[in-house]
Design brief:
The complex is a heterodimer of chains A (309) and B (247). With 309 residues, chain A is an all-alpha fold. Chain A contains 14 helices and two strands. Chain A has one domain: Orthogonal Bundle (ABC transporter involved in vitamin B12 uptake, BtuC), CATH 1.10.3470. The relative contact order of chain A is 0.18. Chain B is an alpha/beta fold and 247 residues long. The chains are: A mainly alpha (309), B alpha/beta (247). The complex binds adenosine-5'-diphosphate and magnesium ion. The site of adenosine-5'-diphosphate (ADP) has 11 residues of chain B, from strand 2 and helix 1.
């Protein structure tokens, strides 16, 4: 299918190098932590974009997979005292299981069922965490997780490496025939069926891939915060991820990843505005989404590099 | 005599409306058959029933000896029954070639090594080869019809269902498209079932006409006879004449 251009590849190398070196130059554990969160949000945004951006089926409960991954890490650490490295593969498996439970009944149907089911499933999980507080730790959640890697800088590099791998894999898939089918599903499901394509299979499979990376990001987040709590399942997390995708440029994978990094950094930088922070943030978002309905980063990159293609 | 498609007692109601009523007919391999009927007669519904897009209430659809009723649309396509839509439905945001590649990825067609090359061949075949790299949005209506046919052919059908392929086309576009359909039929020994609501277009094209009115088959005969069939004249030609007169 499409060839990855030299321009895109060079751009990626520059951005990754910048991301990798910035914390070395700044040499602040606080800022390294901020960047770690940026990069984890980038994994969540890219994984959301793979399913919803390509197929057009909006997932309003990505936090279901994020929370499932994070709580998996939490339970492994606090109940089974497992080696923290088991968290990552286990979180992936659990997130995939959740995607199948929600995807199977709802992605067969057209209409808003999938979006609503994802929204409700994540809200229900948040409630369940409070109801079964003896096991889940209630409001406080689970704490006392071990870090995967002691040095914050090394952990940041590890998470960044996972982001690079995630974006590479998801982009390769999105540009393959598989991605073509997902875009066809976004266009017209009936035509897809008339073309002999099993639409339900591709929708569920893409949700599963999306969930796997979201759950992985959830576990990475848990081992960064060293604790997990119910708001991980909240609608706020899901909406935040969706906004990041739209700002980055939906359907491009790399755009949402960079959109996530940009917006997370923005929230941090706006701390200087004190109590007006939320106002400034919201205003910036509204301006971007209003003036650039296709997003900021991916369209801008395409415009800038047009001449070199 | 062998039969490729055997439809028996197919019926479908939408609430109080019987859109298909006890429809039975069969097709021989390699036949080019027309379905005739005024707007709203239930022609598209019949296609939807045959291709699984709508579930039939009763009846059976045997294709190459196997029951199709109850199968999902994509499964029916992969058994070898492809259709086009009356209102063309391309995948927007893609090139003309990509539109056909999608169908080349269906399980029945997947063994082709190079999907893009096969899609290009199919586009050449329907006369769209030169436009393969263009965005599908740039195609005029007549070309979209050809694209629909290329996409259907990409699934390697044994039976091709064409829903009003001439609708909305000017007289200069109709003749070449009819030639294309004739060529597919002749060269690929394809069995074709073709819907048309205007008599004239396919009189010279098909060997047999199934006339439908109010969801029911009112006559099955060669075109030369169908125009003289009193029920067809009463139910169909009279109506269109009246419609033309009032238009
Ligand atoms: N999905 C549907 N739901 C309800 N009524 C339908 C549906 N599809 C078709 N109909 C009705 O069935 C009748 C036959 O329609 P159709 O098969 O499209 O006719 P034709 O293709 O011969 O013009 C029409 O009265 C139409 O309104
Ligand atoms: Mg019709």
């Amino acid at each position: 299918m499409k060839q990855l251009s030299i321009v895109d590849l060079s751009g990626a190398v520059v951005v990754v190098a910048l991301l990798a070196l910035t914390p070395v130059l700044l040499n602040s554990n606080y800022f390294t932590g901020v960047l770690t969160v940026c990069v984890i949000y980038a994994i969540w945004a890219a994984s959301w974009d793979f399913m919803s951006g390509l197929t057009g089926r909006e997932n309003f409960g990505h936090s279901l997979f994020i929370g499932a991954g994070a709580y998996t890490a939490g339970f492994l650490a606090t109940v089974w005292y497992a080696n923290p490295w088991y968290s990552l593969p286990t979180a992936v498996v659990v997130a995939i299981a959740f995607s199948l439970i929600v995807g199977f009944p709802t992605l067969r149907l057209r209409g808003p069922y999938f979006a609503l089911a994802m929204l409700s499933a994540s809200a229900i999980m948040q409630r369940l965490c409070l109801i079964f507080w003896e096991y889940s730790g209630g409001e406080e959640g689970l704490y006392g997780l071990d870090p995967l890697i002691q040095s914050p800088l090394h952990y940041y590099w590890f998470v960044l490496a996972i982001l690079v791998a995630a974006v590479a894999i998801l982009t390769a898939l999105a540009q393959s025939h598989w991605g073509l089918l997902l875009r066809a599903i976004r266009g017209d499901e009936a035509t897809c069926q008339a073309a002999g394509i099993n639409v339900t299979f591709y929708k569920i499979a893409s949700l599963t891939i999306s969930a796997a990376f979201a759950g992985l990001g959830g576990a990475l987040y848990a081992h960064y915060q060293l604790q997990v709590s119910p708001p991980l399942f909240s609608v706020v997390v899901s909406i935040t991820v969706i906004i990041m995708v739209y700002v980055g440029g939906i359907g491009s994978i790399y755009g949402p990843a960079l959109g996530a990094i940009m917006l997370t950094l923005l929230t941090e930088l706006l701390r200087t505005f004190g109590e007006y922070r939320l106002w400034v943030y919201t205003l910036t978002l509204m301006l971007i989404l209003f003036l650039l309905p296709n997003g900021l980063i991916a369209p801008l990159w395409r415009r800038l590099t047009e001449r070199f293609r | 005599m062998s039969v490729i498609l055997d439809v028996k007692d197919l019926s479908k109601r939408f609430g109080g409306l019987t859109a298909t009523k006890n429809v039975s007919f069969s097709l021989e391999p390699g036949e080019l058959t027309g379905i005739l009927g005024p707007n709203g007669a239930g022609k598209t519904t019949l296609f939807n029933l045959l291709t699984g897009f709508i579930a039939a209430d009763t009846g059976s659809v045997l294709f190459e000896g196997q029951e199709l009723r109850g199968l999902a649309p994509h499964k029916i396509v992969n058994r070898g029954v492809a259709r086009t839509f009356q209102l063309t439905r391309p995948f927007l945001g893609m090139t003309v070639l990509e539109n056909v590649v999608v169908a080349c990825l269906s399980p029945r067609a997947r063994d082709a090594h190079d999907k893009e090359a096969r899609a290009q061949e199919l586009l050449d075949h329907v006369g769209l080869g030169a436009k393969a790299r263009e965005p599908v949005e740039t195609l005029p209506y007549g070309d979209l019809r050809r694209l629909e046919i290329a996409r259907a052919l990409a699934t390697k059908p044994n039976l091709l269902l064409l829903d009003e392929p001439f609708a909305g086309l000017g007289s200069r576009e109709i003749e070449p498209l009819a030639q294309l359909i004739k060529r597919l039929h002749r060269e690929q020994k394809l069995t074709i079932l073709l819907i048309e609501h205007k008599l004239r277009e396919f009189m010279a094209l098909v060997s047999r006409v199934i006339a439908i009115d109010f969801g029911e088959i009112i006559a099955i005969a060669p075109p030369a006879e169908i125009v003289r069939n009193p029920r067809v004249i009463e139910a169909y030609i009279g109506k269109t004449e009246a419609a033309h007169a009032s238009a």
